[in-house]
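Before the break, one more example. Copy the sequence into your notebook; we will annotate it together after we see the structure.
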Amino acid sequence: MLLLPLRSPRLASLVLPLLCTLVPGGVVQAMPSTLGPVIGHALLCRSQLDNRYFHDYLSTAFGPAYKREGGAWWFKAEGAALWGVEVKEFMVSDDSNELVFIAAVMDATPLELEQGIRTAYGIRFKPVDATAFSLRVSNPGSTIAYVNDKSKIYCAKFKPQPVR
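Here is what the structure looks like once it is written out:
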């Protein structure tokens, strides 16, 4: 790849659109540096859940949702990773759901995902029962579940009641 020193704003304005045409779709998007602190902490139930905020964040980071299904907006997560594990998709609740939630489908088994989270934050997940595909829940309330050959991690809470 050709790297040019773009010291001049005029030169940058001429060269960058050209470089964008070399990428399919003409869009260059890098994974946001705030993905771990913002989305990762929400998935671990370590921050407030606000579906509108997360919808806007994911739309800015990954483009518009590719579908709306099951009470959620679905986002492709190309190039995203959390805790050393590739993220395939993010889901954020829409307003039709009684819960506010954020979820991610990860390209790892639940045990591999749990190990990545434990290494990063020391958070442990306990199996709900003794079955082979048991849900795994952390003390803050985050849940890891099997989804075919991948895992899904999510945090879900009931919507706050309006103040009277």
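The chain is about 25% helix and 30% strand. Residues 34 and 40 are 9 Å apart (CA to CA). Try to locate both features in your own notes.
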